Predict the 3D structure of the following.
Amino acid sequence: MSDLIRIYGKSLTTIFLGLTALWIVALIVVPQLRMIERAFVVDRYSDEAARVGVEINRSYTRVFTIDQELDRAAAGPTAPTAPSPFSPSPSSAKPSTPSAFATPSASSGGAVSTDPDRTATLKAEKAELQARIAELEVREKEVKAGGTGYALGNFTSMSAIHAKIFLSTLMYALCVTILAFLACYPVAYAVATSRSSERVALLMLGLVIPYAINELLRIFSWIMILEKHGVLNRLLDSLGLIDLAAGEGMRFVASNGAVFAVMVYAYILFMVFPIYNTIETLDRNQIEAARDLGASTWRIHWRVVLPHAKPGIAVGAVMTFMLSAGSIAAPEIVGRGLHPDWFSQVIYQRFFESNNWNQGSAYALVLLVACVVFVLGVMGLFKVGIRDIAK
Amino acid sequence: MTAETATPAAAVPAARPSSGRDWSDAILNVYLAVFFAYLFLPLLLMVAAAFNASPTPSATDWQGFTLEWFRQLPRDQRFVQGLGHSLLIATGVIVLAIPLGLSGALILTRLRSRSTTTLYTILVSPILTPGIVLGVTTMIFWRDTFGVEAGLFTATVAQATFIASYCMLMFMARLQRQDRVLEEAALDLGASPVLVFRRITLPFLMPTILTAAFISFLQSIENYNTTFFAIGSSWTLVTEIGSRMRFGLSPMVNAIGVLFVVLTVIAALIWAAARRRELARLAAG
């Protein structure tokens, strides 16, 4: 700390420390902790709370219609608006606006029911409902107050389907990573060891342009290929493998294979640049020396180039895996939103469709842990430190 | 020993492996051609579909050349407003991420302590976190703690969380190349630390601050995954493009794509020119 104060002085050091502390606390650590906390908070009675809530609403609606009926009865027999023949089914009590009830009853007028028996039953029913409402409201408070607690329910209640989606998402992400490495290593090697600087400049430009084009557009460009009347089906058609005119076009979109293929395309270049950066620092004399000593091409790569490129491969693997495992764009766009077979989509549904933020947090935490485990695994496998991974 | 063995070893590469190397070079070149075709063909199809009169984006079902989809763009209110939101968020991200990243870098490069690795790990962790998790945590934190609903503000904060990490790495790379002698000399001659920072450190960092601001701006505009979760019911240009891609496909999306491609190519050419100048400077110096 004293070295900071000596160089920057007290006031500047305070500002720098304050800003960094703000970043850590308000943007990184506490939000993560809030998510973790929510992941372990279980609404044990959330179903019951919802049920009670619905019943309270229904009872209020019923009381309202009874009041209306009583008002009309009190207005006297001259009033042409007779009460509607109410149905005992609670579903009919849904529309609670006065007009919705007043209008149809006017048309069914004729049956004059001002008899005191009817009024008495209605009053009795109303009293009964009000007692019930009071009871339910007490219950609702109880449920809401004592209904949450720390538990593992959000994780253990993960259905078999969700668990399967989670595992297959990780498998796909792993496959994307491996494929990206196999495809990119020769490219990175070719660019890094190219002798002519003009060739390097051209190749780099060819890599930077698709890399810099927005992720969504890279994904979307494949729709033109995979859709029913797209390039791929036309190609199969012209080869005579399928007959498009007869409606034989294959629906490639909204399949896991399509999402996977598009993901490889969308994230492949995150592997090229880190590997290129490390191979570029390799002294080319080492390759020459190995070749002069009679090493085969395979052996040169296995013993000279690959070991040197390890940190780059680690960075590329971490970025590609993380982007694939956490991608919401590819499955949403290729799957047209119909195809929730990616874990990111399941998380989205938990938050915004089921409105179950606690379980959504639990799922997001599971994804985060999987990515942390992957990063640690890569660091262990390639024997690199965090400073090599993120730089 | 050296004289006898060196002669055959030097003679061999001239004769035999050169043909083998030609072969492997040829294979590599073919592979490069295939790889670049793979990279560019889908994008070209997307660009082509933007000029196709067909009402659904298609590169195969050609119904004539049109610029109609470009004409419709400025009339689409959601795109225009989305662009406004994107620019607003990007400005906020720059304002947040540059000071945060700079502070982190200044502390990490000057603090001599064993805890710097821990600090470093925490500060770069947002880069290694899936974007959707950042969006989710920001949304939860601001709603649970301050009652702030997801919207443009939370999207800005969520993006700044990881963009600040990128800025920090850029500043650290620059600071590691700094010659500390100037600062030390100024301090020894009695300059106040504030003066030293303002007159020596900050001017030294200026080019990186501008680069970092530019990169932050691009990262913010382009971001989808984090923003998608943190933006609530509002939208940016890119999230709007995303929802158009999912529902109701229109070649207007391709038209926007063409604009993005054109801007990207221009930026890449500028980048390539700058890189060439930098390499030439390094070679000369």
Summary: Chain A has a mean pLDDT of 81. The longest helix of chain A spans residues 2-39. The radius of gyration of chain A is 33 Å. Residues 84 and 105 of chain A are 5 Å apart (CA to CA).
